[in-house]
Amino acid sequence: MTAAPSGPGRGAKRTAIACAGLAVGMVGLAFASVPLYNAFCKATGYDGTPRQGPALAASAARTDDSMVVHFDTNVAPGLSWKFVPEVSRVEAKLGETKTVFFRVQNVGSAPSAGVATFNVQPGLMGGYFVKIACFCFNEQTLQPGETLDVPVVFYVDPAVRDDSNTAHLSEMTLSYTYFASKNGQPVKATGAKSGSSETKGDF
């Protein structure tokens, strides 16, 4: 019976296979890193990203404590939309489910699509602001003059009072920015100045 060949040639082959496997794995990780990071942020509230989850039981709400939630709306250059909340702020009992509507209107002369991104300030509040339902990241296409009302349903987790970094806070801001979009992804405005602009008005 002939013994299997061994030596530097076989070792080099194994090394080459291992390196190829590592390269494929790194490419796969690169493609997966963005959705994994987004999923991590949504699950933990990291970097001011609101968590996503179901509503709390009514018995979990704290009627003796609340948080004032301010709403900030912006439209990036390149999108001829008006975007405003129905109210500028609400006082939410901790754990209480709240629904707030926002109105978007295409004030341009042609159909256009937009998608909204968001964050919470202070950033530490991201882990305690829980979205039950939201229009964010859903691409909307509006005809000239068309108006659409979109809701966000949320609650502020009572656990905010158990965290020494947030226990003292009584106010926070939920900020949205609408961007022109294509295939559900924000696109950079052409011929627009860098930065963002605000397009607001009466609800």
From TrEMBL:
InterPro entries: CtaG/Cox11_dom_sf, Cyt_c_oxidase_assmbl_CtaG. It comes from the Bacteria. Keywords: Cell inner membrane, Cell membrane, Copper, Membrane, Signal-anchor, Transmembrane, Transmembrane helix. Signal peptide: none annotated. Belongs to the COX11/CtaG family. The lineage of its organism: Bacteria, Pseudomonadati, Pseudomonadota, Alphaproteobacteria, Hyphomicrobiales. This is Cytochrome c oxidase assembly protein CtaG. It is found in: Cell inner membrane. Residues 34-203 are periplasmic. Exerts its effect at some terminal stage of cytochrome c oxidase synthesis, probably by being involved in the insertion of the copper B into subunit I. Its main location: membrane. Residues 1-10 are cytoplasmic. NCBIfam families: PRK05089.1. Gene3D superfamilies: Ctag/Cox11. It comes from Methylobacterium fujisawaense. The gene is ctaG.
